[in-house]
Design brief:
The complex is a heterodimer of chains A (255) and B (287). Chain A is mainly alpha-helical and 255 residues long. Chain A contains 9 helices and no strands. Chain A is elongated. In chain B, a hairpin with a 2-residue loop joins β4 and β5. The chains are: A mainly alpha (255), B alpha/beta (287). The complex binds adenosine-5'-triphosphate and magnesium ion.
């Protein structure tokens, strides 16, 4: 009896937080029209997400390109003509690798930072102070970040597409004896603009997930510095899990 | 008979109870605060004074009981009603709660601009006025970030930010803790003048008996009799009657005189009286 009641109490508590967590999605979206009143806040986050991460994006993307090329070449193993190397690599990069890897990289960088920042605000009562002063914390803390994420993730993904492709091409030319014109020729085969669009839709969804998960875990933080640590960790874990789940859902809906 | 609500009552706390898990924090707290009255809540650390303020401003919901602001329940209020009620209220948090991603002037200006929609000229005026009120030089501190301020300066900026909103009801959570005696006195004077000049109704939580005596119209003392019963109101009355009550309640006496073990004083007093066979004043034993 004792055990079962405490289980249900715990279950209810988790459930309650889940409901709260999902409810704030609605409030975040409702507040989107208001971002134009303080557009500089949103621009600041767009800069943080899209510009300050530039070196990280370039570095990660080049390596994604290099590894994809080596891996594809290994799997082709003389069975598939090398002209298709470019075809396979470009498709893999734009539809899957660039958006997903960028999202995972950004979840470690941005979801964690956001959860820590909002978590600190929650435990130091800054969020309560906002509420008491008549400032809607969702409007000022969540919405600008989420809008910035939805806009800038596709931008990062395009950058990543470009640098991954260049990395893959350089690898093919210098290590795999595939001349650049063949690689490019191959890329053009079976290439659809739709593939890029799918990648960008994924990126926008991931942009929402990473920023929202960072915000909500930060916002619901309790219990001081330890709580901030837990929120930061949970934000990254849940952002990553949701990225993979929604990667599947988007692919399933669009292909 | 409850229909006949007393119009002078601004805040009415009724049978408020709150527990966290199995731990009872507050038990059956009831009191009223009258228009332009300053009510001081005293009590030991961890008894739930800050929790009472959070309930009053609607940041947490009680398990039982109700809180009425101008006769309207803040517990049952809709989101819109809650916003309207909060427009009339201000709170100075124990930990200051300054926005650390903003400068001092932005901390004060942000809610004035976004919640009260004041024009820039008025905002500018209020920034300078309130900072001067709390004895800070606006030119020195305006552009600083909260991290660059001392503890006492942060506290004063937090007070300035709250009074800049010109609320009708002010809740202060330990406004003088961590301040030097002179600045403390200045803050006490501000709290007093908010009341006399602007008719503000205030609740002040404090540990500082000197400031309690200076600002209080009435004092509430809360205490818990054992670890798991939750805090109850042990005394409510004027500062003068508090002293009388303290002679009956040793824990209260210990609190207001700032001694750890009240029984020791009484015993010591008896010893001395026996030795010198004369009545002496308890004050001698306060270090
Ligand atoms: N979110 C919470 N979860 C569990 N217990 C809590 C929570 N918030 C407060 N408490 C408990 O409630 C009690 C009262 O806390 P509160 O902050 O109101 O004390 P206080 O009287 O203001 O003390 P102090 O004078 O030190 O500020 C404390 O024992 C604290 O442990
Ligand atoms: Mg407190």
């Amino acid at each position: 009896m004792e055990n079962s009641s405490s289980f249900w109490v715990r279950f209810y508590k988790n459930y309650e937080r889940l409901v709260e967590g999902i409810y704030h999605i609605y409030e975040t979206i409702v507040n989107i029209p208001l971002i134009f009143k303080n557009i500089n806040i949103t621009i600041k986050y767009m800069y943080e997400i899209g510009v300050e991460t530039f070196p990280l994006v370039v570095f990660t993307s080049i390596f994604v390109g290099i590894i994809t090329a080596l891996q594809a070449n290994y799997q082709f193993d003389d069975l598939v003509p090398k002209i298709f190397l470019g075809t396979a690599i470009l498709k893999a990069i734009v539809t899957e690798l660039a958006p997903v890897i960028m999202a995972l990289v950004m979840s470690s960088r941005y979801a964690s930072a956001t959860a820590a920042e909002l978590g600190t605000m929650a435990v130091s009562e800054q969020i309560n102070a906002m509420i008491v002063l008549g400032l809607n914390p969702i409007r000022f803390l969540f919405t600008p970040r989420i809008v910035a994420g939805i806009i800038m993730f596709p931008v990062i993904t395009i950058l990543s597409d470009v640098f991954s492709y260049l990395g893959a091409m350089a690898t093919s030319v210098f290590f795999l004896n595939v001349p650049a014109y063949i690689f490019i020729e191959g890329s053009k085969k079976f290439f659809f603009v739709f593939d890029v669009v799918v990648g960008l839709i994924k990126a926008a969804v991931f942009g929402f997930i990473v920023t929202y998960v960072g915000c909500i875990f930060g916002y619901m933080t309790k219990n001081g510095a330890k709580g901030v640590g837990e929120s930061t960790m949970n934000a990254v874990v849940w952002a990553d899990i949701l990225i993979l789940i929604f990667d599947f859902i988007v692919a399933w809906l669009l292909f | 008979m409850d229909k006949n609500v007393d119009e002078r009552i601004v805040i009415s706390v009724r049978n408020l109870s709150k527990a966290y898990g199995k731990r009872q924090i507050l038990t059956n707290i009831s009191f009223d605060v009258y228009k332009s009255e300053t009510l001081v809540i005293i009590g030991k650390s961890g008894t739930g004074k800050s929790q009472i303020l959070r309930h009053i401003i609607g940041l947490i919901k009680p398990d039982k009981g109700d809180i009425l602001i101008y006769g309207k329940s803040i517990v049952k209020a809709s989101k819109k009603e809650l916003e309207d009620l909060r427009k009339k209220m201000g709170m100075v948090f124990q930990e200051n709660a300054l926005f650390d991603f903003m400068t001092v002037e932005e901390n004060i200006a942000f809610p004035l601009r976004e919640a009260l929609h004041l024009d820039e000229e008025e905002i500018e005026k209020r920034i300078n006025m309130t900072l001067e009120m709390v004895d800070l030089n606006p030119e020195d501190v305006r552009k600083k970030s909260p991290a660059e301020l001392s503890g006492g300066m942060k506290k004063r900026v937090a007070i300035a930010r709250t009074i800049a909103m010109e609320p009708e009801i002010l809740l202060y959570d330990e406004p003088t803790t961590g301040l030097d005696p002179v600045t403390s006195d200045k803050i006490n004077t501000i709290i007093r003048s908010m009341q006399t000049k602007l008719n503000v109704t205030s609740i002040v939580v404090t540990h500082d008996m000197k400031s309690a005596n200076k600002i209080a119209d009435r004092i509430i003392y809360i205490d818990k009799t054992s670890e798991d019963t939750g805090a109850k109101i042990m005394f409510i009355g004027t500062p003068e009657t508090l002293a009388i009550e303290a002679d009956k309640n040793l824990r209260l006496k210990a609190f207001i005189e700032g001694v750890y073990d009240p029984e020791a004083i009484v015993l010591k007093k008896k010893e001395y009286e026996e030795k010198y066979s004369e009545k002496i004043d308890l004050d001698v034993f306060k270090k």
